[in-house]
Write a structure and sequence with these properties.
Number of domains: 2
CATH superfamily of the largest domain: Rhodanese-like domain
Largest sheet: 5 strands, parallel
Oligomer: single chain
CATH class of the largest domain: Alpha Beta
Radius of gyration: 19 Å
CATH architecture of the largest domain: 3-Layer(aba) Sandwich
Distance between the termini: 54 Å
Shape: globular
Strand content: 5-15%
Number of strands: 8
Length: about 220
């Protein structure tokens, strides 16, 4: 095979991978599967797609190696495939954030609300956790929390937070996190807590990025 032919084959493979990822619904499914393995019915519910449409996208992702399956009784559960898939997703998010920063001001970015809230990087959070000076607040659903969460995180779903404020320590700064930079749950939660006098920041990334960095993850006891 000629050298140019080998290069063409390589880039053709890369283009095929890009085509597989080049659909919003497939990226949404991968983001949800990155939280933990789930059956097609639950993935359809989370993404707002029909079961048939969800299955079609999942089969494409499976053929490309992005997801794998295992059977549990009558259910087929989907999980991420082998390889640095979470890193690929994190890189896509990072590039999107770079693009967003160049085309709009942070203050007008609805993902970051009104720009008042401080965020904390993963590296800074690790230092604060080692010092024992922050409380981690996971505002995802209890289902997602059970599938995997940051070590020592307290789980209060965003829609229950206002009724459970007494469970939060007032002496520690709180760091809220959710599914990632495009998930607004942590922003909404942090705004509400700040309005009630808590010292709070939001994690700039989210749970999938934490896993992609090969950091420790805990699961709820069965």
């Amino acid at each position: 095979m000629m050298k140019n032919d080998a290069h063409t084959l390589l880039f053709s493979e890369l283009a095929e991978i890009a085509r597989t990822l080049g659909h919003a619904h497939r990226l949404m499914l991968l983001e949800h599967i990155a939280q933990g393995e789930r059956p097609v019915e639950r993935l359809a519910d989370l993404t707002g797609l029909t079961i048939a449409n969800t299955s079609q996208h999942l089969q494409l992702l499976r053929r490309a190696g992005f997801v794998e399956t295992r059977r549990e009784g009558k259910r087929v559960l989907y999980r991420l495939g082998n390889g640095p898939i979470e890193t690929v997703l994190a890189s896509l998010r990072a590039y999107a954030e770079h693009t967003r920063a160049e085309i709009r001001d942070l203050v007008s970015d609805p993902i970051n609300s009104n720009g008042r809230l401080d965020s904390i990087s993963r590296e800074d959070l690790l230092e604060r956790l080692a010092a024992g000076s922050v409380t981690l607040l996971d505002v995802r659903s209890s289902e997602e929390y059970a599938l995997g969460h940051l070590p020592g995180a307290l789980n209060i779903p965003a829609d229950e937070l206002e009724q459970r404020l007494t469970e939060l320590p007032s002496s520690h700064e709180i760091v809220a996190y959710c599914r990632g930079p495009y998930c607004v749950l942590s922003t909404t939660a942090a705004e509400m807590l700040e309005a009630r006098g808590f010292r709070v920041r939001r994690l700039a990334s989210g749970f999938p990025d934490w896993k992609a960095a090969d950091l420790q993850v805990e699961q709820a006891a069965a």
